[in-house]
TrEMBL record:
<dbReference type="GO" id="GO:0016223">
    <property type="term" value="F:beta-alanine:pyruvate transaminase activity"/>
</dbReference>
<dbReference type="InterPro" id="IPR049704">
    <property type="entry name" value="Aminotrans_3_PPA_site"/>
</dbReference>
<keyword id="KW-0808">Transferase</keyword>
<keyword id="KW-0663">Pyridoxal phosphate</keyword>
<dbReference type="Pfam" id="PF00202">
    <property type="entry name" value="Aminotran_3"/>
</dbReference>
<keyword id="KW-0032">Aminotransferase</keyword>
<dbReference type="GO" id="GO:0030170">
    <property type="term" value="F:pyridoxal phosphate binding"/>
</dbReference>
<dbReference type="InterPro" id="IPR015422">
    <property type="entry name" value="PyrdxlP-dep_Trfase_small"/>
</dbReference>
<dbReference type="InterPro" id="IPR015424">
    <property type="entry name" value="PyrdxlP-dep_Trfase"/>
</dbReference>
<dbReference type="GO" id="GO:0004015">
    <property type="term" value="F:adenosylmethionine-8-amino-7-oxononanoate transaminase activity"/>
</dbReference>
<dbReference type="InterPro" id="IPR015421">
    <property type="entry name" value="PyrdxlP-dep_Trfase_major"/>
</dbReference>
<dbReference type="InterPro" id="IPR005814">
    <property type="entry name" value="Aminotrans_3"/>
</dbReference>
<comment type="similarity">
    <text>Belongs to the class-III pyridoxal-phosphate-dependent aminotransferase family.</text>
</comment>
<protein>
    <submittedName>
        <fullName>Aspartate aminotransferase family protein</fullName>
        <ecNumber>2.6.1.18</ecNumber>
    </submittedName>
</protein>
<dbReference type="GO" id="GO:0009102">
    <property type="term" value="P:biotin biosynthetic process"/>
</dbReference>
Length: 442
């Protein structure tokens, strides 16, 4: 029989950790106790170079004074205001600033608290948009294999990462998937966007023919797929998706939770690739990861479809207690100011060629079967150990941590996405240490 016990301070048992090998972690915990700029400090006093901007979110680096102070000030002045039927200035101010840097044509912001919630929100808006325009049969949602759109039911339904889906039942009905764009046979070791694979967007025509365009509400893709291990859009692919969705009256949603706020060297991937979707989902870098916040950004066309009927009626029955929370809004404003003042998006673009060459210098290193990169993001794919997928990359992660660098792994892929303040010597350290780690792996 289980003991009736209370947790004691520093007992690791009570906290069921997310996306973590809990039993492994609790036997050999990896604890961060402080962070500054490019580095974390571990509980045993070591400095660890942040090769992943936390979880692809701390784009301005850690504990930036402007952001810290803005949060402190806002918490002391207006801690919370009801999100429904009431407002406060910071939420409006932040929305305007987001629109300032968003692609031309994006005009409205709906706040959430995470990337997952942004995805649910965008999917719901898409379906309700068509209904508001008298096309209520458009309810189908199209995602893509290997896509990651967070962990809620809508997101895992349109998502395509098998482990995130298969144990959770039947999910949403009326969902279909485009094929993923990973063609290692033709594109391995490509620097930047691969040449081959634009034709995979034509699969959307097949899906449209199968279900009928009049039943499809939206297509959602990551313009550059991050969590599955950094898969870039083949040249011409996003343009084709845009043309086909437009032709059939289907909304195109870019999930920019990772690509938003400078990761590719532009504010958003939509600008980097020159393709304008109807909606963009964001989170992470919006507040530098410091306070949970997300935002769905829409065109006027999407927003305006709801602005009909008597003015005393709520137009969209959707929202969260913490939508546009004052402290999160203050963090968002200070974050966008930091990006602008320090020119961090431009900096990411300037540093990208050095990053690319450093990453690709790992070609030929033991176990490496592919390297992919864009902006300040990169992936190194390893040959899996036969019969033990993920084990080799996880060993690399543990060894890298011991040697003072933080990387991320997904399957047998190592993904890196450092803060945009990274300097060349940090890149040298990150890649040099990773090479040592790979050379020493079984
Ligand atoms: C493209 C994309 N969408 C959604 C999410 C989910 O975000 P969150 O973990 O904030 O819910 C992520 C997280 O990595 C993501 O990369």
């Amino acid at each position: 029989m289980a003991l009736d016990r209370k947790a004691t301070p520093n007992d690791l048992n009570a906290f069921w950790m997310p996306f973590t090998a809990n039993r492994q972690f609790k036997k050999a915990p990896r604890m961060f106790v402080a962070a500054k700029d490019m580095h974390y400090t571990t509980a045993d006093g070591r400095q660890v170079l942040d090769g992943t901007a936390g979880l692809w979110c701390c784009n301005a680096g850690h504990c930036r004074p402007r952001i810290t102070e803005a949060i402190q000030r806002q918490a002391a002045e207006l801690d919370y205001a009801p999100a429904f039927q009431m407002g406060h200035p910071a939420a409006f101010e932040l929305a305007n600033r987001i629109i300032d840097i968003a692609p031309k044509g994006m005009e409205h912001v709906f706040y959430t608290n995470s990337g997952s919630e942004s995805v649910e929100t965008a999917l719901k808006i898409a379906i309700a948009y068509h209904r508001a325009r008298g096309e209520g049969a458009r309810t189908r949602l199209i995602g893509r294999e290997r896509g990651y759109h967070g962990v809620n039911f809508g997101g895992i339904s349109v998502g395509g990462i098998v482990t995130n889906r298969k144990v959770f039942g039947t999910m949403l009905g009326g969902v279909d998937h485009l094929p993923h764009t990973h063609l290692p046979g033709q594109n391995a070791f490509t620097k930047g966007q691969p040449e081959h694979g634009a034709h995979l967007a034509d699969e959307l025509e097949r899906i449209v023919a199968l279900h009928g365009a009049e039943t499809i509400a939206a297509v959602i893709v990551e313009p550059m797929a991050g969590s599955t291990g950094v898969l870039l859009p083949p040249k011409g692919y996003l343009e084709k998706l845009r043309a086909i969705t437009k032709k059939h009256g289907i909304l195109l949603i870019f999930d920019e939770v990772i690509t938003g706020f400078g990761r590719l060297g532009s504010a958003f991937a939509a600008q980097h690739y020159g393709v304008l979707p109807d909606m963009m989902t964001t989170a992470k870098g919006l507040t530098n990861g410091v306070i949970p916040m997300g935002a769905v950004i829409t065109t006027a066309e999407v927003h305006d479809a709801f602005m009909a009927g008597p003015e005393h009626l709520i137009e969209l029955f959707h929202g969260y207690t913490y939508s546009g929370n004052p402290i999160a809004s203050a963090a968002g404003i200070a974050t966008l100011e930091t990006y602008k003042e320090e020119g961090l998006f431009e900096r990411a673009a300037e540093m990208a060629p050095y990053w690319q060459e450093a990453l690709h210098s790992l070609r030929g290193t033991r176990h490496v079967i592919d390297i992919r990169n864009e902006g300040l993001i990169g992936a190194v794919e390893l040959e899996p150990i036969a019969g033990e997928p993920t084990k080799r990359a996880f060993s690399a992660f543990l060894k890298a941590y011991d040697k003072g660098i933080l990387i991320r792994t997904t399957g047998d892929i190592i993904a890196m996405s450092p803060p945009l303040i990274i300097e060349k010597p940090h890149i040298d350290q990150l890649i040099g240490t990773l090479k040592e780690v790979l050379d020493g792996l079984e």
